[in-house]
Structure formats: C-alpha cells, structure tokens
Design goal:
Radius of gyration: 16 Å
Largest sheet: none
Number of strands: 0
Low-confidence stretches: none
C-alpha cells in the first residue's frame, strides 16, 4: 500500500467523521465544552450562541465531509497522479468551505446574542 492510498483512506474516514459532526451540529447535540464543532469567539459567548452557530455551520460540515469522501474514493479507485490531484483539490475545497463555515457560524451566533446580523 502506497502513502497516497493511505492518505485517500484517511480522507474517506475524515469525511465520514465530518458528516457525523455535521449531524450532531444540526441536531444541536454538541455541548459547549465539546472539542468538536465550530469554535469561535462569537460561538463561545453563551450556550445559545454555541447552539445557533453550530447549527448554522452544519451544512458546511456536510459539504466538507462529502468533498473528503468523494476525493478519497476517486483517489483509491484511480490512483496515481489523479489521487494526488484529488487530495490537493480536497484540501483547498475544505479550507474554502471552512472560511464560509466560520463566517456563517459567527453571524448566527451574533444574531442569537441579540446582534443585528441576520
């Protein structure tokens, strides 16, 4: 087994984990002290801000998970240079989605705290 295949298997496992985290975020089942979830200054202000921010961030966790699973499976099935490109593309996509995730979580947390952000 090559290191690329190992990374692709880890990418699939990471994607499944992100989908599970997304489900917990959407169901508001992540406690404020959890090491999982979207942790920012705004979401850490209160329990309401944490719940609202993480619920708003859930679709991005789902999207990140889907990207990881898809890229990992493509890499496992096709291998070689395609796998390397899939890994790189997944890394970029997850980082871009994380930026949107944090922005959306902050906006929802601020709104939960009585701010004027929708």
């Amino acid at each position: 087994m090559t290191w690329i295949e190992i990374v692709c298997f880890l990418l699939v496992a990471t994607g499944v984990g992100l989908v599970i985290v997304g489900r917990r975020q959407a169901g508001r089942r992540l406690g404020r002290g959890s090491s999982l979830g979207t942790r920012t200054r705004q979401t850490s202000l209160s329990e309401a801000a944490w719940a609202a921010g993480n619920e708003a961030a859930a679709p991005y966790s789902y999207a990140q998970g889907a990207v990881c699973v898809a890229a990992g499976l493509v890499g496992i099935l096709l291998g070689g240079i395609i796998a390397t490109v899939a890994i790189g593309a997944a890394a970029v996509a997850v980082l871009v989605l994380a930026g949107f995730q944090v922005a959306r979580a902050n906006a929802a947390a601020e709104h939960a705290e009585g701010g004027d952000t929708p």
